[in-house]
């Protein structure tokens, strides 16, 4: 593979893949679950600690195995082909493609804010609860367009990634500065005044709309369930940084630059996320955050800061953000499926590069399945399914750092995990609690993602029996 990606490109890929739609939406759900400014900040801090701890731990593996395929390669080298395949299958069936679908649907939702006719139009098809809308069709068009652009070579994808990532970072910084200096009526004291007493207001009507029936105090197991449910959105907003490991084969000096990009990129994004949430807490009351129209809390905040013009600014920003995010996801994901194909673990045609030296067939396979997932469910349901499976595989990979230290201490480690074994253990403890609570409180959304991954087991045995 050609080394066309420098350190800056790798950092932009990390940040661009992380910053998509979540930061502009999910804080509403966090506030509905926990009802306090302190809890909103706590959820983002604990998610930030998890994310950075995982990135630091992955750094050791990225320096040991600087190959295209990233996390798939790590799991295959540590635990064998079966676990590697299950991750790769999970990546194709739900993790990468599901994330692409969710981000594309979010692009459609914010486009509909600028073009109300998209929201008002009758569904193209509806059978019971299943329906196909123009927003979903727009999401598919975006996926197909970005897939086509990335078939034209790494340079095309890199240019788009740097352009859109740079734009949304500057825009987020602008919103943070405006939220500090231009806000007229601050709700900071009021929102922090609730302290660490948690409240919930999650009652819905027959159509599934949230009812403002008053905040109820929560504690005990219900509180932990609320924290886990609230973290779903924050975790989803903070994943995909590992996508940079998928393109290790195309990064200059991967033994150093991959780990640098992961640690710097994740840290910078989590600081931005925390600052943006402080802007929400400052510009909006608790009810305005929790019950923002269609969860578009960023739009409500911009309305408070800039007036009506601000809502258009935010809608455009989210469209730029989700477009750039999906470009990074599409660019990197196909490299894993190509590596799996070269190992005899995926469709043979996925291994081939086109004349532009990119895996065109793998790109189209990924794009088509992501488009199918766009039609399969709503944004919130996709988040629950994806977040659970992603954290599960993060945990297995982070555990791999500890396992490899014990099994093969003699291996060369150009970079060693900072504060080992504390750093990986922090992630494993928080991740275990998160997954267990989600399984208990959101079983109907978490088991489908797990089932899709487990379907990979018979497929694995079929592939190997043919050999």
UniProtKB/TrEMBL annotation:
GO terms for molecular function: L-amino acid transmembrane transporter activity. The chain crosses the membrane at residues 7-26, 38-58, 86-112, 132-151, 163-183, 221-241, 262-282, 302-325, 385-406, 418-439, 445-463. The keyword Membrane applies. Signal peptide: none annotated. The keyword Endoplasmic reticulum does not apply. It is a multi-pass membrane protein. It holds the Pfam family AA_permease_2. GO terms for cellular component: membrane. Keywords: Membrane, Transmembrane, Transmembrane helix. It is found in: Membrane. This is Amino acid transporter.
């Amino acid at each position: 593979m050609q080394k066309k990606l420098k350190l800056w490109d790798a950092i932009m890929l990390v940040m661009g893949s992380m910053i998509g739609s979540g930061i502009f939406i999910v804080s509403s759900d966090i506030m509905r679950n926990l009802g306090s400014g302190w809890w909103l900040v706590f959820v983002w801090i604990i998610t930030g600690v998890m994310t950075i701890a995982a990135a630091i731990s992955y750094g050791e593996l990225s320096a040991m195995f600087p190959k295209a395929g990233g996390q798939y390669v790590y799991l295959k080298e540590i635990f064998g082909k079966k676990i590697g395949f299950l991750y790769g299958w999970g990546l194709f069936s739900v993790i990468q493609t599901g994330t692409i679908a969710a981000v594309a649907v979010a692009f459609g939702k914010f486009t509909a804010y600028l073009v109300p006719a998209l929201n008002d139009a009758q569904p193209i098809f509806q059978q019971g609860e299943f329906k196909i809308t123009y927003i979903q069709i727009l999401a598919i068009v975006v996926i197909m367009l970005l897939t086509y652009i990335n078939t034209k070579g790494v340079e095309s994808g890199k240019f788009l990634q740097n352009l859109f990532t740079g734009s949304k970072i500057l825009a987020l910084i602008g919103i943070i500065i405006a939220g500090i200096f231009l806000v007229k009526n601050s709700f900071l004291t009021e929102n922090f005044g609730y302290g660490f007493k948690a409240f919930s207001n999650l009652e819905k009507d027959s159509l599934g709309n949230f009812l403002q029936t008053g905040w109820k105090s929560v504690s005990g197991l219900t509180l932990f369930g609320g924290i886990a449910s609230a973290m779903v959105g924050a975790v989803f907003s903070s994943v995909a940084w590992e996508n940079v490991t998928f393109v290790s084969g195309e990064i200059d000096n991967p033994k150093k630059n991959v780990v640098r990009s992961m640690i710097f990129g994740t840290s910078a994004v989590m600081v931005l996320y925390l600052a943006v949430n402080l802007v929400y807490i400052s510009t909006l009351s608790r009810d305005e955050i929790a019950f923002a129209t269609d969860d578009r809390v960023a739009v409500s905040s911009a309305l408070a800061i800039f007036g009506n013009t601000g809502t258009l600014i935010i809608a455009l920003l989210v469209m730029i953000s989700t477009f750039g995010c999906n470009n990074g996801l599409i660019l990197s994901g196909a490299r894993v499926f190509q590596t799996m194909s070269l190992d005899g673990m995926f469709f043979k045609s996925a291994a081939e590069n086109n004349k532009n030296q990119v895996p065109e067939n793998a790109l189209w396979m990924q794009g088509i399945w992501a488009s199918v997932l766009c039609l399969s469910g709503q944004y919130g349901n996709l988040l629950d399914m994806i977040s659970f499976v992603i954290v599960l595989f993060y945990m297995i990979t982070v555990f791999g750092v500890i396992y490899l230290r014990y099994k093969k201490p003699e291996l060369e480690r150009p970079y060693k995990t900072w504060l080992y074994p504390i750093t990986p253990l922090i992630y494993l403890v928080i991740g275990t609690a998160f997954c267990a609570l989600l399984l208990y409180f959101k079983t109907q959304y978490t088991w489908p993602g797990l089932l899709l991954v487990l379907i990979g087991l018979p497929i694995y045995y079929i592939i190997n029996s043919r050999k």
